[in-house]
Amino acid sequence: MEASEALSGRPAATPEETDCPRCQGPLSVLPATSIHSLGFKLVRRCLRCGSRRTIGHAPCWVYTCTGCGLPFTGNELLDREAQRCDECRSSEEFIADPVPALVQATEVEIRSALRDLWRFVRGPGLDTYLNQILREVAPHIPGAPRHGNVVVCDEWTVRSLALPSGTIVVSLGLLATLNDEAELVFVLGHELAHAAGGDAAVRLLRLGFHGIVRDTEAAGGLTWAWAAEDLTRIGYGRERELAADDLALRAMCAMHYDVTSVERLLNRIEQRMEQGDPALAELAVSHPTPRERARRLDLSVRWRRRDLAEARVNREVFRRASGHDVLKAELDPVDFPVEAAVEIPELSRGREISWPWIGIGAAAALVASVAALWLF
Ligand SMILES: [Zn+2]
Ligand SMILES: [Zn+2]
Ligand SMILES: [Zn+2]
Q1: Which residues 6+ apart lie within 8 Å of 303 measured at CB?
Q2: Which residues 6+ apart lie within 8 Å of 40 measured at CB?
Q3: Same-domain status, 222 and 120
Q4: Tell me: the pLDDT tens digits for 135-153?
Q5: Is the pLDDT of residue 180 over 90?
Q6: How many domains does the chain have?
Q7: What is the pLDDT, as a whole number, of residue 91?
Q8: Closest alpha carbon to 27 in 237, 274, 270
Q9: Which domain holds residue 156?
Q10: Quick one: pLDDT band at residue 203, thresholds 50, 70, 90?
Q11: Ligand 2 centre and the CA of 265: distance in Å?
């Protein structure tokens, strides 16, 4: 024990890591992001090799469990196949996807929590435009909810969140990062891919129930808000994020948008991350590095480009409806639509999902409490 540690009774501060212990590259200059479900540990990603690491006392690696999709930490550098949390390693128990009533109850909890957590705005032209594009993209994402809507969050952080019903939350900061309609189609397609097949539902449920077990009274009713916030900050794990990119790109091709827009978007995001723009800090932790995303899409872009000589970007249409002048103008504050009809699409059957720590009782209690809310 260090002398200072012995005197203060607290662990001595470790000198901050400046280089990535995996690739020895300089660590990102972006601010670190706090993750509730990791005990508010601060996390950042190496923009060179893509590893995530906590900062502060006793830094460790951060992974997304390939079994249950929850974040966990470890002192060892793990291969992708070995990135499973302790619960998933010790349990062989698998159950089918959660029933729609449970997903519906969860979404009502999340919507209610979001209303108090973030501020939302609307502009008649902006809303009409975003919802029209979402409706056009949805049929091109397999399994995506067809009756979703876009809600704009009054935040200049680059942030997005897909809810199981297909409601997509996008921040002003995210919209301001986009230059044309092709880029908007990519972003909405990526989020719809998360909502498709129950991915958003499963993660929100797990983060929420994990929070209920962990937080007890300390969270003061913030458990569901923290679940939503953690999902925007930790993402769905590398493979699911890259798969969502691929589905979004396929949708763009089918809709005859210029897929090279995505390369331009990822390049701009990478530049801003390298300059340390704090608005990009959450995105840097939740998604693979822009370089890796661009690299994975590059092959597809090359072979699809042959058919896309006439592909569109609709830059002027986008600027008039959702450009900087619109976003900087007076937008009206609006409540998050908690009571809106929440229609949950059928979840894909047959996927094996580790569900080792949710008691049936807890699930039933949530359904019962929400049912009671509806009755009264
Ligand atoms: Zn690294
Ligand atoms: Zn797990
Ligand atoms: Zn994503």
Answers
A1: none
A2: 34
A3: yes
A4: 999 999 999 998 899 999 9
A5: yes
A6: 2
A7: 73
A8: 274
A9: 94-375
A10: confident
A11: 32
224-245 tens-digit pLDDT: 888 888 899 989 989 899 999 9
At 3-30, the pLDDT tens digits run 444 444 444 445 677 889 999 988 778 9
For residue 46, the ligand closest to its alpha carbon is 1
For residues 347 and 283, membership in a common domain is answered with: yes
Residues 253 and 346 in one domain: yes
Q: Are residues 174 and 236 in the same domain?
A: yes
Does one domain contain both 158 and 289?
yes
Alpha carbon of 193 to ligand 2 centroid (Å): 21
Residue 157, both tokens: 């952080």
Name the domain boundary from 90, 113, 138.
Answer: 90
What was the pLDDT predicted at 186?
97
For residue 199, what pLDDT is reported?
A: 81
Q: In the listed set 66, 90, 114, which residue is the last one of a domain according to the structure?
A: 90
CA 339 / ligand 2 centre spacing (Å): 32
Same-domain pairing of 268 and 318: yes
Taking the CA of 282 as reference, the closest ligand is: 3
Cα(first)–Cα(last) distance of the chain, in Å?
Answer: 58
- Rounded to whole angstroms, the Cα distance separating 320 from 57 reads 49
Please give the distance, rounded to the nearest whole angstrom, from the Cα atom of residue 334 to the centre of ligand 2.
Answer: 37
CA of 99 to the centre of ligand 3 (A): 24
User: How many beta carbons lie within 10 A of that of residue 179, not counting itself?
Assistant: 17
**Domain shared by 84 and 115, yes or no:** no
| 161 φ/ψ angles, rounded to the nearest 5 degrees | -150, 130
Shared-domain flag, residues 65 and 129:
no
pLDDT at 256 over 50: yes
Please report the pLDDT score of residue 52 as a whole number: 93
